[in-house]
Amino acid sequence: AKGLMAGKRGLILGVANNRSIAWGIAKAAANHGAELALTWQGDALKKRVEPLAAELGAMLAGECDVTNTASLDAVFAKIEKEWGRLDFVVHAVAFSDKDELDGRYVDTTSANFDKTLNISCYSFTAVAQRAEKLMTNGGSLLTLTYYGAEKWMPHYNVMGVAKAALEASVRYLAADLGEKAIRVNALSAGPIKTLAASGIGDFRYILKWNELNSPLRRTVTIDEVGDSALYFLSDLSRGVTGEVHHIDAGYHIVGMKHPDAPDI
Ligand code: NAD
């Protein structure tokens, strides 16, 4: 087999439909020779994920809700049975109640704080615990984050706090797993219109603001995130761990509104 990802087997969590960032990454990895396993969350998404898996010749590793430990265990048991080992995992999973992705962070409830941090942050550690056992030849763990972890963003609220914790967990996991040659990194994607993003208040305004003010004067696509993911999932980045890498048309270097950008 030929290709950057030839001989590599990876699990991808977070494909909901063909607009998912996880789908952009899955396509790029498969096109470069990786063998993939996909999961779905809940019956409603199964019928969307099945044809997408077929398109890439990916294995269906089962239903996976990260709040259900048994479903996570079952997915890794299936991978151990079918493959015996694992080279990479992509974690593209996040959730918060829509009501709290609007208005003020200070109004966050304890229940939604716990739920958001559990699904959007702890689940990556839960995945790492299980992947470690199967990454006998080293490996690459990759998660998805957003600039709202570093700076205040309107409406991002508790999700920004969860992403900050996720980025910190990337560093702690990288230090723990480094001696096994398991690398842990995050991609910080610019705003992209997906199912999850539709829950964020005024998301169109955020997209437009990024388009007008990023150095490349545009937003990014799931295929661009996928291409950047190849570097972290392949041996090209074998010397890199604990990194948060921005794929955002350069937006994170900008300090203020561009003087040429029109008011919106
Ligand atoms: P998406 O809706 O396509 O994907 C989100 C996925 O999370 C879905 O597949 C959903 O099933 C899964 N999920 C939610 N709760 C789950 C649970 N309890 N168990 C298992 N899976 C669960 O949206 P997306 O934008 O592609 O999101 C993927 C990742 O990218 C998320 O971590 C998101 O925060 C991050 N991200 C998105 C953007 C953006 O603008 N879209 C920007 C930066 C980072």
Automatic annotation (TrEMBL):
GO molecular function, one term: enoyl-[acyl-carrier-protein] reductase (NADH) activity
Keyword Nucleotide-binding on entry: no
Reactions catalysed: a 2,3-saturated acyl-[ACP] + NAD(+) = a (2E)-enoyl-[ACP] + NADH + H(+)
This enzyme's EC code(s): 1.3.1.9
Enzyme class, broadest EC rank: oxidoreductase
Pathway(s) where this gene product acts: Lipid metabolism; fatty acid biosynthesis
Active site, renumbered: Y146, Y156
Binding locations of NAD(+): G14, S20, I21, Q41, D65, V66, V93, K163, I192, K193, T194, L195, A196
Stated family: Belongs to the short-chain dehydrogenases/reductases (SDR) family. FabI subfamily.
UniProt superkingdom: Bacteria
Pfam families listed in its UniProt record: adh_short_C2
Protein name as it appears in the record: Enoyl-[acyl-carrier-protein] reductase [NADH]
Originating species: Terrihabitans soli
Key words, A-Z: Fatty acid biosynthesis, Fatty acid metabolism, Lipid biosynthesis, Lipid metabolism, NAD, Oxidoreductase
